[in-house]
Amino acid sequence: MKSQKAPAKEPQQPISPLENASQGVERGITLRLRAYRLIRKLLIGFIVVAVINVLFSNFFLTPKMYKINRDNRELMLKYRILQDRIRTAQRRTDEIRHRDNHVYRTLFSADTLAIAGIRQPYPDEKYAPMADDPFARLMIPTWKQLDQLARSIYEESLSFDELTPLSKSKEQMASSIPAIWPIDRTKLRNGIGAYNPRRFHPILKRIMPHKGVDLGAQRGTPIYATGDAVVEMTNRGGFNGGYGRQVLLNHGFGYKTRYAHMHEVFVKQGDTVRRGDIIGTVGNTGRSTSSHLHYEVLYKGHTVNPVNYFNSKITEEEYERLMEAMQDNTQFESL
What we know:
Elements: H1 17-59, H2 63-107, H3 136-168, H4 170-176, E1 192-193, E2 213-216, E3 222-224, E4 229-235, E5 246-252, E6 255-260, E7 262-265, E8 272-273, E9 278-282, E10 292-299, E11 302-304, H5 316-325, E12 326-327
Parallel strand pairs: 1-12
Antiparallel strand pairs: 1-2, 2-10, 3-9, 4-5, 4-8, 5-6, 6-10, 7-9, 10-11
Helix pairs in contact: 2-3
C-alpha cells in the first residue's frame, strides 16, 4: 500500500499592525470594564455596610455606646440620690435652727442671731461655667442646694459658738441677767413712762428716742441692782447729758443696765453687786421735772425694752395692765 502523505500546512498569514492595535484596544476595554465592575461592587459594598451600620446604630447599641449610656444613667441616679440627701440634711438643719431660735436662745435669754447677707443666694454668675454642660439642668440646682445647705450649717455653727459659753455658765448667767424691778412696785407714783424709740421730744419738738422706762417714785426710794454685776461707771453730780447722778452696771453676757436721775449713789466704780442690792435712791437730778428713776437695759451696746426683763413670772393679765399703764408720760423728764 502506498503510504498517505500528511497534508501540507498552510503558511500563516502575517498579522497586520492594524489588527494588532485593534486587539490591544479590545484587551484595554476589557480590563477597564473589569476595573469599573470591581469599583462598582466595592462602592455598593461600602454603601450597604454604611446603611447597615446606620440601621444598627439606630436600633442597636455598640458596646462602647452601651457603656456610655450606662455610665450616664448611673451619674443621673447618683445626682438624684445626692439631691435627696441634701434635702434631708436641709430639713434637719431647719429643725436645728427652729430649736435654736425658739428653745436654746429663749433658754439663755439671747437674741436671735442676725448676720447680714448670710442667707442670700449666690449670684447666677457663679454657675455660668456649667450652663453649657449637657447635664446643666441637673447640676446647677444640685449645686444651689449644696450652697444653701453650706450657708445654713455655717449660720448654725456661729450661733452655737455664741451659745456654748452661755451654756457653760448657765447658773452665773441666770443670776446676772436683769430680771427684777429696779424699785419696789408698791412705791410707784404718777405712772410709768414707756420705752419708745420713736418718741416725739416734748421740748425739742423732734423725734428723739426714749431709751428706757421712767418709774415715778418719791425721792429717797431705794433702787435695786436687777442682776449680779460690776459697777462700770458712776456719776455723782452734774448734768451728765441729762442723766444727772447715775450708775451703769455691767452684768456680763452682753448686758448692762443704767440707773439715772438718782438722789444718792451708794456704790463706786469697780464694786461687785448682787441682784437685789441697794445701789442708790430715786431722785430728780439732771434733765428731770419730777422725782423718778430712768432705767435702761442695754444688750450688746443697743438699748432694748426693759419691760421684757422685769419679772419673768409675770402673768399675761399683769403684763397687759403694765403695758396699758406705760404711756408716753412727759411729766418726768425731757431726755
